[in-house]
DNA sequence: GAGATCGCTGAATCCGCGA
DNA sequence: CTCGCGGATTCAGCGATCT
């Protein structure tokens, strides 16, 4: 049951340093921090992958796998002991209405989930990060491992955890946010590299994932702790969304990369942050408005995200494809054979040689509406 | 490690009754069946946890339900004991190369997964059943719980489990099947009803889900056991796909519904049940046979796929290139500086001005072998 | 310059038979 | 059991290079 925060705890909280990266073992550092001082914990612990030999792609290139010492454990027992120790230290830090997110793959997530339940946390959802561009299964021996699992849990059964229902609904184009999130891997310019061009961290998470986590379950000003800070994705998103963060990271190399990254982040305009997380949904924009305003022309062709489909815009803001017509969502869903489809992110248009999602135009409209 | 099946076990297997539904507690019934007689187990155990249903200890005594918050630990313990007991009985029944699927939600799946790992099973994939039409979260306090999780595991780490890679790939429109499957809930006419119009079983699974499970991981004629048979979805799909099934169900009402359901199922035409085979399953052809049969001549020159290398054929079916000699694979790998090389697709020969892969000739030989 | 092509890469428990 | 070796196996996205 949630307890009221004592005055003493409040004083200790005031002594907390925010927006810092602590060096050292996460369990020891957490034990040194004041109890009940944290609103949200995001934890991306070692997965204990247990990889054996090397793996090559069909073109004979070698897969650069995670073989770092920090991911090696002697046994499930050893991994469980580690897991339960850091989860215990973490729970002490959470405010009574605080919550935690942990992420893992099938190698470790069942042990994480059981440890959370055994440790007194109260599970709220398991969330599937559905990767739009996973690495294939090169030997054809199993299904393509195309997702990872996040577990969202409150500190206790009765906790009044934060959930920004309307913000999630708005993010999902007006319908309730589901427990499966389709988000691409962290690649391209977002992926941090060393001076020699290697990836700075083997398992850097996409900022879009953390963005959704924080928009869902924190408020501006909340304190977010990441005990496995790595190169600081949690801190970067927290700073941008005007949350405060505390990172803990053992490896000096990762901390250095994170410090540089964070220094370059500018917080989002505070009104934009407030809008995203308020109970008010973002102003709804009909697709037809884009046509009315001439941002897209009737007769123009949109292409699907994957490039496999195309459709023509009609003057009333509906689309026509081969034998299908309807809203941007309906046509996308029909062409993909999917139950639903967010047309705003599915459909793209060409502008100056680039392929741009139509959601880009919606954001433009919304910006105008706020003035 | 897989053990060889003993003669005694073989005899006992012959005594197994197929396509039957056993009445009774699944642990007791499983303990009465012969060891190493089952190819695949599909299990949809109680999701339980808050002990709304009944729970049994390994000795089958009924657990006196306690649902107070303070006793949550004891409840998890009881659920774990039950889980580990039936998983142990199930593992004994599996052939050395057998496998299991279990399904659960976030309430129980973490305990299932950990119990599988602790029990010696080897996890192959966790698979997300992504519901296209989930029930909304009416109170808006959490994310819409839009998926369930299946775990696919082999009996042991070294098992040569069945995976019909090509069939899955075909089912997914020519690209590898991923670990997330979008399938609607069981509704409409597929949903079994009682005489009074109520649903016959609270958690009836869609046949499409079982269809994919069986096409992925069984062959025609395989024996599929379902220890929580319910209204017989596993049996229905097994019968239709010409697999054999064994069901175990405690509740007489469910068994009655399942019996009627199964009686109406007609097996699919046996040719339609055959799945796409992979190249691995095709008869092996030595390269030398092509020379023996005069499809290629000793002394003839082969060129590499990329045109950068050439090699001469010797009478014994080996190749010679500059300073390299050996099999078609070895020479290809050496010339490319690659760890391995599939000589069948790497090497090409000239015929009527065209460049043809030598694999074309292997296919000719294989076609002759089938006659 | 625009479009096509090529190369690279991502948390991976990734082969199987015969000697 | 190990060892040797034949030979089967990849999707999406980004960025650089080529036409």
TrEMBL record, chains A, B:
Gene3D superfamilies documented for this protein: Vaccinia Virus protein VP39
DNA methylase N-4/N-6 domain residues: 38-258
Family designation: Belongs to the N(4)/N(6)-methyltransferase family.
Organism of this sequence: Amaricoccus macauensis
GO terms, molecular function: DNA binding; N-methyltransferase activity; site-specific DNA-methyltransferase (adenine-specific) activity
InterPro entries to which the protein is assigned, alphabetical: DNA_methylase_N4/N6, DNA_methylase_N6_adenine_CS, RAMA, RM_Methyltransferase, SAM-dependent_MTases_sf
Name used for this protein in its record: Methyltransferase
GO cellular component terms, semicolon-separated: cytoplasm
Pfam families the record matches: N6_N4_Mtase, RAMA
Single GO biological process annotation from the record: DNA replication
Catalytic reaction annotation: a 2'-deoxyadenosine in DNA + S-adenosyl-L-methionine = an N(6)-methyl-2'-deoxyadenosine in DNA + S-adenosyl-L-homocysteine + H(+)
UniProtKB keywords: DNA replication, DNA-binding, Methyltransferase, S-adenosyl-L-methionine, Transferase
PROSITE patterns: N6_MTASE
Stretches assigned to the RAMA domain: 268-370
EC code: 2.1.1.-
Signal peptide: none
Source domain of life: Bacteria
